[in-house]
Amino acid sequence: QVQLVESGGGLVQAGGSLRLSCAASGRTFSGYAMGWFRQAPGKEREFVAGLSRNLGLTNYADSVKGRFAISRDIAQKMVYLQMNSLMPEDTAVYFCAVRSSLFPTTTAATWDYWGQGTQVTVSS
Description:
The protein is mainly β. The chain contains no helices and eleven strands. The chain has strands at about 1-5, 10-15, 20-25, 35-40, 45-50, 55-60, 70-75, 80-85, 90-100, 115, 120-124. Strands 2, 4, 5, 6, 9, 10 and 11 form a seven-stranded mixed sheet that branches. A four-stranded antiparallel sheet has the order 1-3-8-7, with no helix packed on it. The radius of gyration is 13 Å and the shape is globular.
C-alpha cells in the first residue's frame, strides 16, 4: 500500500508562486513514476507533470511547460511541484499520484495511488 498526503496549496495572486509537497508512505519503490494532476470544477482530472527517476525523464502538460517543475527527494519519499507565474486558469484541486510502473503516463486512470488533494486558487 502507498499513502500520499499533499500540502502547500492556498490562495495566491496571479504571477505568484507556490510549492506543493507530497509525502509518500507505505510500500514504495524509488523507481515508481510520480506525478501531479489537477481538477477544476466541472472538469475532468488533468495531467500536470510526471517524473521517472529510473528513466531520467519528466513530462509536463503544454499549459504548464516553463512554469511548473516536478522534483523528487527519494530519501525522504517526497515529491514536489514548484509552480511559478501562476495564472487564474491554474486554479484547481491538485493531486499527487504514484504509478506502479517506471513510466509516467498522462492518463489518470492508469495511475494507482492518489492523495486527497490540495486546493490552489489563483486570483487576478
